[in-house]
User: What shape does this take?
Amino acid sequence: MPHLTIAESRCIGCLLCQVACTYKHFGEFATERSRIRIEQITNGDFIKVNARICRFCRVKYCVNACSRGALRVVGDVVEVDTSRCDRCYSCVVACPYGAISIDPTTGYPLICDLCGGDPECVKWCPVHAIEYVP
Assistant: This one.
């Protein structure tokens, strides 16, 4: 099953992956609308990076949690049918990795779709911390 792997120890927290994601999907540079999230946790001089991205689970907890049938598996990715989504965010709560965020513009869930098999985040990571596994 295609997926992304992220070496958090190599990530420098530049957020270029988020910029590339939002430009690919929305044609704008708006990191808050990214389908990948890089969190920087600071403790004094120590900075830890935590990547939040769909892990393409075998058991689709997000899909199973959606009572409206707005999430469905298409190929290898989970897609959101906005015509069925009532923005209850059960999918967000159900994700064990905290990988689903909410689009602040539309209110719909944002889930990685691997950019149709050619992920932009991988192309733009300057330290090659993100890899696409077909």
